[in-house]
Amino acid sequence: MDIDLIFKIAAVGIIISILDQVLSRSGREEQATMTTLAGLVVVLMMVAQKIAELFEMVKGLFGL
Amino acid sequence: MISLFWKGTVVILLAVILALCLTKESGLTKTILIMAVSTMVAMTAVSILTPVFSFLRQLQQITELDESIFSIMMKVTGIALVGQLAALICSDAGMTSLGKVLDLLTTAVIVWCALPMLEGLLDLIRKIMGEI
Fold it and tell me: Based on the domain organization, do B81 and B112 belong to the same domain?
């Protein structure tokens, strides 16, 4: 079980929320949105690989 | 295997704490975190189930159960597992209607997969009725 992945996602989430707050308070709403989107894409890419692995595993085991 | 159970429990509890730490601004990250943890724990559960399924296959060979029936049962189990997991994630993300639709889709696919078995049952009933 890859526990590091959970910490990575949580860390990215916390960093995104801090950056979002900082940029929003300094009046850079557009940059805050872009930062949030970039973080989400990074996290989503990490998770997508795991989901693909799960699907392959289930496909192999259950003969789908 | 027992150690995997403890590990999985700890990981889930840790993920709950981390998800609670994520503020309202990163609600989407929270959902992705839940998805990642669910996927990892489901993968662990599937890997634990592998010897169980090989045992079931052994039983199928011993009892000379039809391979097609066994494969249908396996397929249905797999589809139900993935569908249920995805529907629960949808519900957790606050999209209950999507979760319900996914449940419906899963049920439809399961019924479609089980159709040959139902046809076999119908033929059997017809045969019995014909004999009477």
Answer: yes
* Closest residue in A to B29 (Cα–Cα): A13
Among B8, B36, B74, beta carbon nearest to A9: B36
Domain that holds residue B100: 66-132
DSSP A28: -
Ordered by start, the domain boundaries in chain A are 3-62
Q: What is the pLDDT of residues B63-105, one digit of tens each?
A: 888 888 888 888 898 899 999 999 998 988 888 999 999 999 9
Domain count within chain B: 2
φ and ψ at residue B94, rounded to 5 degrees: 85, 10
Residues of A in contact with B28 (CB under 8 A): 40
Same domain, B87 and B125: yes
pLDDT digits (tens, 9 = 90+) for B11-27: 888 888 888 777 666 67
Helix (H, G, I), strand (E, B) or coil at B67: helix
User: Considering CB atoms only, which of B15, B29, B78 is closest to A64?
Assistant: B78
Enter the tokens of residue B56: 């079931």
Contact residues, chain A, for B18 at CB < 8 Å: 6-7, 10
Fill in the amino acid letter for B118. L
- The answer, as to whether pTM is greater than 0.80, is no
In a shared domain, residues B38 and B71: no
